[in-house]
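Exercise 7. Predict the structure of Dinitrogenase iron-molybdenum cofactor from candidate division WOR-3 bacterium.
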Amino acid sequence: MRIAFTADEPKGLDSVISYHFGRCPYFVIVELDGRDVKKIENIENPSAESHAVGELPQLMNQLGVNIIVTGGMGPKAQEYFAQFGIQPITGAYGKVRDVLEEIIEGTLRETPAVSEERPSHVEGENEEIRRLKLEVRELRREVAELKSLIKEIMRGR
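Solution. The predicted structure, encoded as tokens:
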């Protein structure tokens, strides 16, 4: 089984899952043999800046992906994945390692997906929007770290 995770960075299992499917900078692809990780690949999203509709589902299909995991994905993209027999899982957050463990253990609970609606462009807001995006990315990293720490604490019980 091959699972693709949207990622903000190319750090394999330690990558933070990106909240935006189409514009994520990277994908982490994990190949499983049963419950064991067989291979991990970090690939740059060739369409992070702009892409044609259906392009990324087609790429994932070519890469042999069975499941795509992300924070948010629009319904149109989900339809394209379904055409290729690829299961989308939305609403994921944290580190790839933790979400992968939840998938393997069968404990992953999908949360409501982050909306992929894009804010309308208002002149003069570009700098503020860029700053807010950076703050959100940093907050997602912090949440991912906290989620990992909580899992470690729970294992030690």
